[in-house]
Amino acid sequence: MSEIMLTPDSRPLGKSGLMVSPIAWGMWRFGHSTAQEGRALIDAAFSAGVTLFDTADIYGFNGAGGFGDAESLLGQIFADSPGLRERMVLATKGGITPPVPYNSSAAYLAEALDASLKRLRVEQVDLYQIHRPDTLAHPQEVARALEDMVTSGKVRAVGVSNYTVAQTTALASLLTIPLASHQPEFSPLELEPITGGLLDLAMERDMAILAWSPLGGGRIGDPQDERSRAVAAALDIVAAEAGVDRAAAAYSWVMTHPARAIPIVGTQNADRIAMIGDAFKPRWTRKAWYDVLIASRGERLP
């Protein structure tokens, strides 16, 4: 039976012209580290072959304070380590404004980008994504704001996160530059990008998919319900054959879809980061891949 094999080769980030690693490292909890600890985690990610680093202005926020902390910590590390910034493809996000909660007006996005650049201590980010769709922002205004970011030289490519298919299509139709990426929640336990058509749209438009929470918010590692346990069992079969852990099998399952989704690994443990390469070891037959899908659906396919 034929198997689908994954390779660690760099791939295009949509139509951006940027080349990135097939797995990214995310900084959701990064703001709680010291500069020395943070640099060690970044070095571990580099050693594991990661070149795409994902942060956001909201990362570090705990409900009361900490807005911008992850970006500020990364900015401190950049200041302490000249040349480090040039080794990575740097992505950040904006548009969440607690407690509003969202703002994608042109004026706010321009301010948010400038604030991110200041915290990061850089003049340009490679990818800027709108973190959550703002229902009160017309896509025409959002499109102009994103184009202005690129025209200004402050951003190389733009994308969105958590947009619906319709929201993504509407925005893309009003842009004169491509949407390089879309960052949805996608895991063996979160199938909406498959069932809702987002991955099909990504393949049609040549848009990169950056999958957040590829381990189902920890539910794949510690399944607590029948559905999660069924998915874990299906993953474990492939993981055991490849000699890797369940997390690596989950990342690999996400990456095997022809949309070539890029899972964002969120661990802040250097030893776990070092194991990122294990995601390229599993070999998926169609039956094994569909067994995970069926377990997640809780019913057989028609």
From TrEMBL:
GO cellular component, one term: cytosol
Domain NADP-dependent oxidoreductase: 22-281
GO MF annotation, one: oxidoreductase activity
Gene3D superfamilies given in the database record: NADP-dependent oxidoreductase domain
InterPro entries documented for this protein: AKR, AKR_Detox_Biosynth, Aldo/ket_reductase_CS, NAD(P)_OxRdtase_dom_sf, NADP_OxRdtase_dom
Pfam families per UniProt: Aldo_ket_red
SUPFAM superfamilies recorded: NAD(P)-linked oxidoreductase
Coiled coil: none
Entry protein name: Aldo/keto reductase
Species of the source: Sphingomonas alpina
